[in-house]
């Protein structure tokens, strides 16, 4: 079942890339394992998926522990992170996708023993319920991170609204791409900002069309039937 799902997802990645003449090698599939146990995650790793994500600190540490023999796995924390939990997780992950405050960045700076790859979460849709920096505050926010040597801004992340139409979702992803290019063009050493983390099970084809380089997919990989 998981193998079939993976095959389908990979095919959709290729088709979406082909539509806009992108090389599918530019898109990294991150498997979001929050709804499954370690054995399902392991099955995917055995099928060659080497990027796994969790949205909770404790769950990520648990999975990492039980899959510790697979040293090739890159671990992504995609959910938001409370400052008091930074210490327990930050040196165990390869990417953090939800940086959304200066105080959080300062705590990462304090606790990290090496440079942490971070995506800034941007709230493009403006929904109250969503985390993230507002687009108009992004540039100032990035400048505030200048002295944090352990925080490297590799890109931007967003979540599209769950119930929006395709056109709206595409425009949200396109806006994130514009912001990414803007930050990238500042040529800040601590913020190369070349990556775009956007697209989930129901909207990753649209995200790829709009330039996603990391897609975060859960349900489509683990659904039954
Ligand atoms: C759960 C989650 C995903 C994956 O969602 P699916 O719809 O299951 O693909 C992606 N990103 C974040 C931040 C999540 O919390």
Automatic annotation (TrEMBL):
Keywords: Pyridoxal phosphate. The keyword Lipid metabolism does not apply. The modification N6-(pyridoxal phosphate)lysine is found at residue 34. SUPFAM superfamilies: PLP-binding barrel (SSF51419). It holds the Pfam family Ala_racemase_N. Residues 13-222 form the Alanine racemase N-terminal domain. Pyridoxal 5'-phosphate (PLP)-binding protein, which is involved in PLP homeostasis. Belongs to the pyridoxal phosphate-binding protein YggS/PROSC family. This is Pyridoxal phosphate homeostasis protein. It comes from Candidatus Enterococcus ferrettii.
């Amino acid at each position: 079942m998981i193998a079939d799902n993976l095959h389908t997802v990979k095919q959709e990645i290729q088709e979406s890339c082909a539509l806009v003449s992108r090389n599918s090698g530019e898109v990294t599939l991150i498997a979001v394992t929050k709804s499954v146990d370690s054995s399902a995650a392991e099955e995917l790793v055995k099928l060659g998926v080497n990027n796994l994500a969790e949205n909770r600190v404790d769950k990520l540490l648990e999975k990492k522990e039980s899959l510790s023999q697979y040293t090739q796995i890159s671990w992504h924390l995609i959910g938001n992170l409370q400052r008091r939990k930074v210490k327990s997780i930050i040196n165990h992950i390869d990417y953090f996708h939800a940086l959304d405050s200066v105080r959080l960045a300062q705590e990462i700076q304090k606790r990290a023993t090496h440079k942490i790859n971070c995506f800034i979460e941007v709230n493009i849709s403006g929904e109250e319920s969503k985390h993230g920096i507002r687009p108009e505050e992004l540039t100032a926010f990035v400048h505030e991170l200048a002295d944090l040597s352990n925080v490297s801004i590799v890109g931007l992340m967003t979540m599209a609204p769950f119930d929006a139409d395709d056109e709206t979702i595409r425009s949200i992803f396109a806006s994130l791409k514009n912001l990414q290019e803007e930050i990238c063009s500042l040529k800040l050493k601590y913020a190369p900002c070349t990556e775009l983390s956007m697209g989930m099970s129901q909207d990753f084809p649209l995200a790829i069309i709009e330039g996603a380089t990391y897609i975060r997919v859960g349900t489509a990989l683990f659904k039954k039937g």
